[in-house]
Amino acid sequence: MATISAMTSFPVKSSLHCTHLGFGYWNWDSLIHSKGTVGNCWKSLTCSSHRQQRRTVLCAVKKDAEQAFLKTVEVDRLIDTMRDSNPGELEQVVVENVLSLDEGFWVRLAARVETCKSEDDKKDYEELAACVMSIVDRLVHKTEEKIETATDILKAILNPVMDEHEEITWPPRDPEALKLMEKEISTREQEGYLDEGFLAEVNAQLRQAKEDGDKPGLQAMLQKVLQIYASKVLGKRSYAYKGGKVIPREKFLESVIEAPESIWNKLLIDGLTIGKGDIEPEDLYAAIKKRIERVLIRTEGGSYEQRVLVEYLKGIESRTQELVQALQGGPVQ
């Protein structure tokens, strides 16, 4: 009992070992009797912990922002490279970067479309997106089917107008044959198969047919293929509206571009002031000149695509000039 009383009368001053909690040595008396001190210590420790957490979060956010910025710069660089590429180079760029064409790429491309300051730039981006998607689609299908050559594609296009002896007559005996051929051209163009290789093949066959001189049907059909191709490509981009208003001469030109060559005369007579319309020939010439300038800017110099599109537009111009010359001196029939 004495021992117990002695211990009660003389409290033992001891230390609590707390190093495993990271607090070091604390005097037992101070922990028991100095509540204010303990509170301040815990408050200091808690605040320090919160500050550390905030620093960690801020660092993580900063790192994520930097990574997002670098990703955007990388995607912008890829988009700019694609924009500056000709059709042949674009396909190579897509092939080399196909794994980068993820959701982020398309979101960024859409954002750049929305921030365009001019309609021309906006249409350029939209065409670029369509071309890239077409190339990617072809890459996917190449693993599943045999790649067709330009000759195979041309044969498939001409197949509806060939007879049982694989000869071509002009005009086709079956009125539906031209519609089927046009449908095939449209499908192939949308799939991206009517590239420089295809146009080179058509031009080579056309040149050979002209030299031979004994296949007028083939020559006419090859010319028809190029006309339909030009009509489809030029018809994809419209300049008939600006600021919510219609530009009559552009709208009229586009109606001629998209029409079969066989009805150009009727359209021109009905639309021009020399006939029944209200479009001045000079206005149509100006629209054609402007469209040719746009083609020259947006296609590779010396390419078959550029040549075919420009020749098609000049064909409309020549037909208009012929009609103007023929009709200016007399009444419209």
Summarize the structure in words.
The structure is a single chain. With 333 residues, this protein is mainly alpha-helical. The protein folds into three domains: 64-142, no CATH class; 148-234, no CATH class; 235-333, no CATH class. The protein has helices spanning 2-9, 28-33, 35-83, 87-96, 103-114, 119-142, 150-158, 175-190, 196-212, 216-234, 248-257, 264-271, 281-298, 304-327, and strands at residues 15-17, 25-27, 241-242, 245-246. The longest helix is centred in the N-terminal third of the chain and has 49 residues, at 35-83.
Give a brief outline of the structure:
The protein is 69% helix and 3% strand. The protein is mainly alpha-helical. β3 and β4 form a beta hairpin.
Write the layout of secondary structure elements.
Layout: H1 2-9, E1 15-17, E2 25-27, H2 28-33, H3 35-83, H4 87-96, H5 103-114, H6 119-142, H7 150-158, H8 175-190, H9 196-212, H10 216-234, E3 241-242, E4 245-246, H11 248-257, H12 264-271, H13 281-298, H14 304-327
Antiparallel strand pairs: 1-2, 3-4
Helix pairs in contact: 3-5, 4-6, 5-6, 7-8, 7-9, 8-10, 9-10, 10-14, 11-13, 12-14, 13-14
What keywords describe this structure?
flat, disordered N terminus, 333 residues, two-stranded antiparallel ribbon, mainly alpha, two-stranded antiparallel sheet, 14 helices
Percent in helix: 55-70%
Main sheet summary: 2 strands, antiparallel
Number of distinct beta strands? 4
Mean pLDDT: 80
- What is the molecular shape? flat
Instruction: Tell me the strand percentage band.
Output: under 5%
- SS-based class: mainly alpha
Number of helices: 14
Q: List the secondary-structure elements in sequence, H or E.
A: HEEHHHHHHHHHEEHHHH
Radius of gyration: 38 Å
End-to-end separation in angstroms reads: 139 Å
